[in-house]
Design goal:
- The chain has eight helices and ten strands.
- By secondary structure, it is an alpha+beta fold.
- It has two domains: 77 residues, no CATH class; 133 residues, Roll (FAS1 domain).
- A hairpin with a 2-residue loop joins strand 2 and strand 3.
- Helix 1 packs antiparallel against helix 2 and helix 4 packs across helix 8.
- The longest helix is centred in the N-terminal third of the chain and has 14 residues.
């Protein structure tokens, strides 16, 4: 059988004849006394199994199950789908440059939200940006009693849209982050993109358009801090 992503099943009581997969997804083709079926992803297999797939006979290279194992198979399929997830949190957690940001997201209890469907745009400060804050600032924000303040700082870095760099208009414009009481001023020019925050200073986008399953990350060189509405003209 032609190999490729997905899951191959032979349905029925006979022995698989090893026919090539039919073109397209979720298609069946006769194969002796069997029906051959290709499932392009685990969720499709699980749905089919829920419709009471009959006994499946073993064949080399073919996924083999019986009805009594459907519950276990469903769990495996769901796990397989999740293992391929590549959310904003997954990407940040897998990159040591964002270890301080990830620790802050976890301390604020925002990890589950940012692993949701989104879409989100996260302006993600690197570790050096956190290190540039006044001494003791990060340690203070990470204390449980300062969770609300930390949450506000983090939400100031998130937009609830997928703002790839080509969607940011040229010039200076106000943007409303998830901390909706505040504004940032994002300027796009020939030299790049910068973001003015509530302190009146600006962060530069140093890496743009890291795509995730639930949005996009732009890497910045400064932690954005809420405060006064920045000038934007």
């Amino acid at each position: 059988m032609k190999k490729g992503p997905g899951i191959d099943l032979v349905l029925g009581e006979g022995v698989a004849c090893g026919a090539a997969k039919p073109a397209g997804s979720l298609q069946t083709a006769p194969c002796g006394n069997n029906k051959y079926r290709f499932f392009p992803n685990p969720e499709d297999l699980l749905q089919s199994m829920r419709r009471s797939v009959p006994v499946i006979q073993s064949t080399p290279g073919v996924v083999v199950m019986k009805k009594s194992l459907m519950a276990l198979a469903g769990a495996v399929c769901l796990f397989a789908g999740q293992a391929n997830a590549n959310t904003i949190v997954d990407i940040a957690a897998g990159d040591e440059r964002f270890s301080t940001l990830v620790a802050a997201v976890q301390a604020a209890g925002l990890a589950d939200a940012l692993q949701g469907p989104g879409p989100f745009t996260v302006f993600a400060p690197v570790n050096d940006a956190f290190a540039a804050l006044p001494e003791g600032t990060v340690e203070t924000l990470l204390k449980p009693e300062n969770k609300d303040q930390l949450t506000n700082v983090l939400l100031y870095h998130v937009d609830d849209r997928e703002l790839t760099s080509n969607k940011i208009p040229v010039g200076s414009n106000y943007f409303k982050p998830l901390l909706t009481s505040e504004r940032t001023c994002i300027t796009r020019s020939n030299s790049g993109v910068d973001i003015a925050d509530g302190t009146g200073s600006s962060a530069n986008v140093i890496i743009a358009d890291i795509k995730a399953d639930n949005g996009v990350i732009h890497v910045i060189d400064k932690v954005l801090l809420p405060g006064q509405r920045p000038d934007c003209h």
